[in-house]
Amino acid sequence: MDRLRTLGALVGGSLLISIIYGVTLDNSEPAIDFDMNETEGNQLVVTGDRGAFSLRRDDLRMEAFWRGSFMLNETADDIKSLDHKLAIIREKDGLSEKAVFVPDGGDVKKFYYIGEDEQENGPETDASISELLTSFLSASGVRAEERVAALLEKGGVSEVLSIFDTLYGDHTRERYSTELLKQADLNQEELHALLDALSSIDSDSTLRTILGEILIKETIRAEDIPHFLKTASNIDSDYDMRRLIETVGEHSMNADAIDLSLELIETIDSNHDLRLAGEVILAHPEASPKNIAELLLIARDQMDSAHDLRLLLVDAAPLLSGNDKVADAWLGAFAEIDSDHDKRLALADAADEDLPPEITRALIDATNEIDSDHDRRLALENFASDARNMPMLTEAYKAAAAGISSDYDRRRALESIGVETDIDD
Fold first, then answer.
1. Which domain holds residue 136?
2. Residue 106: which pLDDT band, with cuts at 50, 70 and 90?
3. Domain count, the chain
4. Would residue 134 count as lying in a domain?
5. Contact, 43 vs 139, CB < 8 A?
6. What percent of the chain has pLDDT over 70?
7. Which residues face 51 on adjacent strands?
8. What is the spatial distance between Cα 343 and Cα 334, in angstroms, rounded to a whole number?
9. Residue range 54-77: average pLDDT?
10. Are 253 and 285 in contact (CB under 8 A)?
11. Is residue 180 part of a domain?
């Protein structure tokens, strides 16, 4: 059994069915329902040792039924062996065809019908049977592993890519793409050709999965990025774009792959998904200070949720130390937070880091952007211990405290650094 997947449903997407490629072990009766939309749809169900496939697209109708295992020949255009029976039926352009494969000792016996009439054996009949079989394989994704291996043996990666236009459905394209990436090392031209072929995929989830496999298995170079971005731009879902970046972030990335990830992040509109995608870059050991600064500038320009922007800045706070570009970008994003509460919490987390005095002073100065006297005083108090021991920070602290209009909060802030006042609140 090659793999188990779930596929949504036969009527209105409500029924989940298991997709099993290959041989199953028991002889239980299949539970198959091929109700489809008015115009098109395709389903593959394997239950026990029996399988069934159905396709409806415009004027094309195809069905296949089998029991037990069957194996393809070396060129993947015929059946080498099977346990019981395989039948494939196709109706297209008014022509009805059927191919039937049954075991015959150690061989396979084949029958071919047009309408109800069995056709005589011969080269023409063999060619029709082979074409119907490969059409079924392209439509269903069944035996994709064997077929990709045969196509690679025949003509390399280009041979596999040449059949992509004949594949029906996103799930089948995913099967063939995954097998191609698993079985072959793609050169740059082949990678670009695969990316172009993937543009026909409609499902965001499927496209995200395949692009994730590419980023994991292939080395992305600067010259590959435009091709990748062109294909990835077909992903409309912020969730799937974020999941793509999370998948890639779990693996080693070169500088070009990180640059690509940042360009993908720029396409995300959702504050929540942008933050989670950004956290992948912040946590990645190969992300440079330049990458971090670019990410924070993207967040500054695109995030309008004070909560999510603050959480991203909290995660970036440990990276403030020793890099002016990161610090400037962090402070620029901080200025865009429109909540005094979230500004205070962001500064509180930053104050916990071991930062150079120059950056600490910049953070103290940033408290001036907090309008609420209460929140400004609490934000300042996070820096009180540093301000007591360093004159440069003491002066910055006093200047920030002077901007607090509330006598009570101003006095409390100054007392936190040991400054006695005669303020009467």
1. 4-140
2. confident
3. 1
4. yes
5. no
6. 89
7. 46, 66
8. 7
9. 91
10. no
11. no
In a domain, 152, yes or no: no
* Inside any domain, residue 28: yes
**What's the confidence (pLDDT) of residue 4?**
27
For the record, the structure tokens of 37 come out as: 């939309």
Strand partners, 50: 47, 67
Neighbours of 177 (CB within 10 A): 27
Query: What is the 3-state secondary structure of the chain?
Result: CCCEEEECCCCCCCCCEEEECCCCCCCCCCCCCCCCCCCEEEEEEEECCEEEEEEEECCEEEEEEEECCEEECCCCCCEEEECCEEEEEEEECCEEEEEEEEEECCEEEEEEEECCEECCCCHHHHHHHHHHHHHHHHHHCCCHHHHHHHHHHHHCHHHHHCCHHHCCCHHHHHHHHHHHHHHCCCCHHHHHHHHHHHHHCCCHHHHHHHHHHHHHHCCCCHHHHHHHHHHHCCCCCHHHHHHHHHHHHCCCCCHHHHHHHHHHHCCCCCHHHHHHHHHHHHHCCCCCHHHHHHHHHHHHHHCCCHHHHHHHHHHHHHHCCCCHHHHHHHHHHHHCCCCHHHHHHHHHHHHCCCCCHHHHHHHHHHHHHCCCHHHHHHHHHCCHHHHHHCHHHHHHHHHHHHCCCCHHHHHHHHHCCCCCCCCCC
pLDDT at 386: 93
Q: What is the pLDDT of residues 133-170, one digit of tens each?
A: 999 999 999 999 999 999 999 999 999 999 998 898 89
Who has greater pLDDT, 197 or 10?
Answer: 197
pLDDT at 322: 66
pLDDT at 25 over 60: no
Q: What is the pTM of this model?
A: 0.78
CB-based contacts of 378: which residues, under 8 Å, 6+ apart? 344, 348
Question: Which residues are registered as beta bridge partners of 210?
Answer: none
